[in-house]
Write a structure and sequence with these properties.
Blueprint (H helix, E strand, L loop, with lengths): L1 E5 L2 E4 L4 E8 L6 E8 L6 E7 L5 E3 L7 E6 L4 E6 L8 E9 L13 E2 L3 E6 L1
Parallel strand pairs: 2-11
Antiparallel strand pairs: 1-3, 3-8, 4-5, 4-9, 5-6, 7-8, 9-10, 9-11
């Protein structure tokens, strides 16, 4: 399985951005597709996750109400719509995939496959 993250860029506070994670290779309905982010000097943080079947979705508390994760099964792509962006959202955003139980959804170390990351910069 290979992942390709795209859609990052430089935006102003309050703007929106949509990230995409293109997935190639066999992916089963029980796979979790997660988004994580890492700012310079900080640990990698969980952002959002969706089960490929679409049955489960979850977000980090600070993203609830601002971010929305969705999947396009026809294009084998997962999107992360980010609204009302803040300077503290500045980070490299990574998508990851793995067959995982739902209870492990926020654990980056549990994901088997990772994309290369896309940089999001939010200016104030």
């Amino acid at each position: 399985v290979q992942l390709q993250a795209s859609g990052g860029g430089l935006v102003q506070a309050g703007d929106s951005l949509r990230l995409s994670c293109g997935i190639s290779g066999p992916i089963a309905s029980n796979y979790l597709i997660g988004w994580f982010r890492q700012s310079p000097g900080k640990e990698r943080d969980f952002v959002a996750v969706i089960r490929w079947s679409g049955s489960h979705i979850d977000y980090a508390d600070s993203m609830k109400g601002r971010f929305a994760i969705s999947r396009d099964s026809a294009k084998t792509t997962v999107h992360l719509q980010m609204n009302s962006l803040k300077p503290e959202d500045t980070a490299v955003y990574y998508c990851a995939a793995s067959p995982l139980i739902w209870g492990a959804r926020t654990r980056g170390d549990a994901y088997r496959y990772w994309g290369q990351g896309t940089l999001v910069t939010v200016s104030s």
